[in-house]
Amino acid sequence: MDYGIVLRVLGFLLIIEAGSMLLPLGVALYYGGPDIGAFAVAILVTAAAGIAGLRCKPTNGVVRYREAFMIVGLGWLLASGFGSLPFLLAGTLPSVADAFFETVSGFTTTGATVISNIEVQPYGILFWRSFTHWLGGMGIIVFTLAVLPALGLGSMRIFQAESPGPTPTKLVPRVDQTAKLLYGIYIALTILQMIALKITGMSWFDSITHTFATMGTGGFSTRNASVGGFGNAASEWVIAIFMFAAAVNFSLYYGLIHRKWSALFKDEEFRFYGAMVVGAALLVGISIFDSYKGQLGKVVRDAFFQVVSIVTTTGFITVDYEKWPELSKMILFFLMFVGGCAGSTGGGLKQVRILLIFKAIKRKLYKLMHPKAVIPIVLGDSPVPEETVDDVLVFTLFYLLIFAVMSMLLLTQGLDAVSSMSAVAATMGNVGPGFGLVGPTTSYADLTTLTKIMLSICMLLGRLEIFPLVALAMPNFWRKA
After folding, report:
1. To bridge 430 with a disulfide, which of 93, 110, 223, 260 should be the other Cys (CB 3.0-4.6 Å)?
2. Which residues does residue 382 pair with via DSSP β-bridges, in sequence order?
3. How much is the pLDDT for 474?
4. In Å, how far are 16, 145, 149, 421 from 153, measured between CA atoms?
5. Is residue 171 within 8 Å of residue 472, measured between CB atoms?
């Protein structure tokens, strides 16, 4: 294990985080908030730790899989730890566990909060909450990759360990160029949404913070009632459209930039994703229609918004869906597991994995009648390697096993079955709000400290797709090769 290269990359990561805190510090200064000192101290402490890491010298400058897993796993833990300093120093949250939970929720784009009254918080703190979504959405590690060549370090291993989805791909031969292209697309969509929300009547502050949370598929809002607190139908449609866009594989946007217009609709995962959103919204709309007393426009808007919000793992709320019929609630619960497309900012299992599982089931049923048939699983025009199919099945089973174990552990903390299962599903899927005690009109504030720690682990497991974090807990990982 080359600890020098690990510490050097982590040091650079903390320097980036310290630089990122300058933006909320500027916001705090602009509004004259009480959180100015908190951000100033947090920046100094984070930068000092980063400089200490940068002073470490790599042994050979090669990032192997062990170093990659360590950089990714510890990177998210360190980013969350130092990112929690503003919440603690500003007095927003009373305990380390609460501050760590809120920051992990931000960086993992979960959007589960332990702040009961959001609207009384200083502007700098509100900006930082949403900005952590934006940083974590594309991946703070991926951002680091864009500048790693300046350190003379390799980065493909880190890209593979951090990127969501079963098969992370490069858009161009160099990983740093891929990272820059992804962030270029990400920034362009961010600017477009900011302008669109401003046009709908939101203030610039609310437009920016809600755009950060939308593009990161996070869900932190500046209102206690989330997006529904604005009572603005135009804003809801803008946010819904951009939530849908944020959960699309960003490589498809790269194709659109190069005028490969047909690539979007030829992509089988995108078609599956679109069909799932439309189908789920239609079923939810039919289910809630009677309770809306003929308000067809509101039925369509609420059904589409909440389905997109949950399936993209954003977690914005416009209505208390716990008052909806049981069919609608069951649909939303299952969507918590699905998530966005691979290569997007969305969490969950990912659309492509669900699609491959369906294809594997279809093949198995066919082989019951034709046992000697050799039937490859095809995605688009390309056959999927059997190793990838096996990886998808193993990952999904592991994901569901962790969900079951963590749900049972939460039962020991006094939660009922619905609250336990939805809390784990919502945090592992990086959705945010669940049902019961963690429903859309409540927060995670009243949960026990141990529960918050367990759910913080769930958020990290879901964002890192389990294996990078689990690898750090395995004794073999620390043994000399």
Report:
1. 110
2. 379
3. 79
4. 17, 9, 6, 42
5. no
The pLDDT score that the predictor gives to residue 475 is 79
Could you give the CA distance from residue 334 to residue 252 in angstroms, rounded to a whole number? Answer: 26
Contact 250, 185 (CB under 8 A): yes
Sign for the pseudo-dihedral over CA of 268, 270, 275, 280: positive
Q: Residues 407-463: pLDDT tens digits?
A: 999 999 999 999 999 999 999 999 999 999 999 999 999 999 999 999 999 999 998
DSSP state of 466: S
Q: Is 32 left (phi over 0), alpha (psi -120 to 50) or beta?
A: left
Give every CB contact of residue 113 below 8 A, 6+ residues apart in sequence: 102, 105, 220, 432, 443, 444, 445
CA separation for the pair 125, 131 (Å, rounded): 10
pLDDT band for position 117 (cuts 50, 70, 90): very high
Element (H, E) at 378: strand 378-379
No. of H helices and E strands in the chain?
22, 2
Q: Which residue has the tokens 């969490």?
A: 347
CA gyration radius, the chain: 22
CA 193, 199, 203 angle in degrees (round to 5)? Answer: 85
Helix/strand/coil for 383 = strand
Indicate if the alpha-carbon torsion angle 331, 235, 440, 218 is positive or negative.
positive
Q: Which residues pair with 383 in a beta bridge?
A: 378
Q: Which two tokens stand for residue 39?
A: 């951000």
**CA quadruple 281, 283, 287, 290: dihedral positive or negative?**
positive
Residue recorded with tokens 């998530």: 339
Instruction: Please calculate the CA angle 263-268-272 and round it to the nearest 5 degrees.
Output: 125
Q: Which long-range contacts (CB under 8 A, 24 or more apart) does 194-203 make?
A: 196/238, 196/242, 197/235, 197/238, 197/239, 200/232, 200/234, 200/235, 200/238, 201/232, 201/234, 201/235, 202/230, 202/232, 202/235
Block residue for tokens 């913070």: 209
Tell me the β-bridge partners of 378: 383
> What is the Cα–Cα distance from 222 to 209, expressed in whole angstroms?
8
pLDDT digits (tens, 9 = 90+) for 244-270: 999 998 888 888 887 777 778 888 999
Per-residue model confidence (pLDDT) at position 158: 52
The number of residues making up the chain comes to: 481
CA–centroid distance for 338 within its chain = 13
Rounded to two decimals, the pTM is 0.92
